[in-house]
Amino acid sequence: MLTANLKVPYRDQVITLSEVRNLAYEHDPLVRKDGYEAELKALETVEDAVALSITNIKREVNVVNEFRGYTSPLEPTLKSSKMTQKTLDALITSMESYRPSFEAYLEAKATYLGHQEGLPFYDLFAPVGKGAKTYTYEEAKALVLEAFYGFSDHLGDFAKRAFDNEWIDVEPRPGKIGGAFCSNQPQIGQSRILTNFTGSLSDILTLAHELGHGFHGEIIKDNDPLHWSYPMPLAETASIFCEAIVNQYLLKTINDDHLKLFVLENALQGDTQVIIDILSRFYFETELFKEATKPVPVSSLKKWMLAAQEKAYGKGLNQSLKHPYMWLMKPHYYSAGLNFYNFPYAFGLLFGKGLYGLYEKNPEPFTKQYETLLAYTTKASVEDVAKTMNIDVSDTAFWNQSLDVIKLDIEEVIALFEKTKDA
Who contacts 252 (Cβ-Cβ below 8 Å, separation ≥6)? Predict the structure, then answer.
């Protein structure tokens, strides 16, 4: 409620928190910087109340877990995720081992944008290349549908039905929560989607992401009611796979280096959030749970978040221009039933990239196998679902293979930075 109704003074106007955060995608560097500063200043006005909220929620989780005999808050999360500690350890180990590649990308982007000591937080999402444009919602719909139909008629037909029946709450407005999410309603065979679309390419990928969740709901709606829910790590599989479909569709239509840089680097922004920023959130929440036996002051929350960002981003992020309030921005922290809802995004991204690699190798039988896999996500463990595609998610080798795909993108983007900087 506090963040949805927060009024943010920005230059000579008052806007919503969602609107000011979306300024991070603008082309004008001064707009991005002013938006970041306005955001931090506005968040300071609600920091105490929100800190009290997050403290009490995490204290509740610790108390309940102790009564139930769990040894840590991570244990019930892994249980509800139908995932073993071995698989999580393999995932985190691989993510940390590829951190230097992301650090190199961020340093290269900082240099490209004219920064000396790493990338300021407000330029993490700065568009690069000369192909950046603002899309209308109609253009976004057309692009998503064309890409989805290129994968399968079933996926395309589902997205068309969602658009035609207006299942999507599209644009930001006062009182509307930020971010995006999808609520599947299998009992009526439909979904409802919230986005805050302002026309960036990132917004289009978000739209594809949420429609992917909806398609997952489309697949499982014919399951028995007790098999209508899936564990958190697999919740992001279909959504991230749909992002990959749209992104690859765009890349295959591009010959110009500037436009290719724009599209490829935009995708890399998302990958960096899901690998590096997710690491920072994992580190932060681990620290928070250790200390959440008593009220936690705002100063500690900010200190832990800054330390987590430093550990995850390294020299890629300017150490004096980070974001101390990221704990205030993520709604997942504020649900006693969604603890550590960070690593599932990384699982989904890398599992989705692994699946997309299988699709590219042999597209003909994959579509049917993919839908079978999605239907199975409500009935089995993470490890057993992966085995249907002969994937061992408890082995770092699989995660490294997926991260190698991103590493190749990083190398290509860094090369394009050099190639296009003065062109």
Answer: none
C-beta of residue 79 within 8 angstroms of C-beta of residue 335: no
CA distance 375 to 372: 5
Q: Which of 100-104, 264-268, 301-305 has the lowest mean pLDDT?
A: 264-268
Residue-level pLDDT at 316 = 97
Domain range list for the chain: 137-259+344-420
- Which amino acid would we find at residue 327? W
| Token pair recorded at residue 404 | 């190698």
Range 289-309 average pLDDT: 95
DSSP 3-state of 256: coil
In the chain, the N- to C-terminal Cα span, in Å, equals 47
Beta bridge pairs of residue 194 = 169, 181
pTM of structure: 0.86
The DSSP H or E segment spanning 11 is none
Give the Cα separation of 411 and 399 in Å (integer): 18
Give, for 161, the enclosing helix (H) or strand (E): helix 153-164
Model pLDDT for residues 206-264, shown as the tens digit of each residue: 999 999 999 999 999 999 999 999 998 898 889 989 998 998 898 888 888 988 898 89
Helix ranges restricted to H, 113-152? 137-151
**DSSP letters for 215-242:** HHHHHHTTS-GGGS---HHHHTHHHHHH
Q: β-strand 168-169 against 190-194: which pairing, if any? A: parallel
Structure tokens at 151: 């994968």
Distance CA 2, CA 380 (A): 38
Tokens of 90: 């393999």
What's the CA dihedral at 382, 384, 387, 393 to 10 degrees?
A: 40
pLDDT-derived band at 423, boundaries 50, 70, 90: low
3-state secondary structure of 325: coil
Q: Are 191 and 217 in contact (CB under 8 A)?
A: yes
Cα–Cα dist 129/117, whole Å? 21
Contact indicator for 236, 181 with CB cutoff of 8 Å: no
CA distance 353 to 3: 33
User: Residue 303: which residues within 8 A CB-CB, separation 6 or more?
Assistant: none
